Amino acid sequence: xxxxxxxxxxxxxxxxxxxxxxxxxxxxxxxxxxxxxxxxxxxxxxxxxxxxxxxxxxxxxxxxxxxxxxxxxxxxxxxxxxxxxxxxxxxxxxxxxxxxxxxxxxxxxxxxxxxxxxxxxx
Length: 122
Hints:
mainly alpha
């Protein structure tokens, strides 16, 4: 599956791929997708660091997003699985925004719609 198509599904059909709406589930799915598709998310972590922090970082992309959230700017951040629900939902939205921008910059924007079975996509 191409990254743009993945973003389409995460935007419109998220519960077909995730067991719940938590940020932890989204992170696990994205990391599994990345590991299973060999390079489709290559460069995402440094891209997120530059986009969110304005400089490179050795932290994983989800930690960068958690630490950049206003609730955690001056306090220790909890593990990804223990975020308050409202923070998790903010981070899910932010992650999908970033994935959309990343896919688009790589020339693979999410489609407006998926082709019908038997329809040739261009």
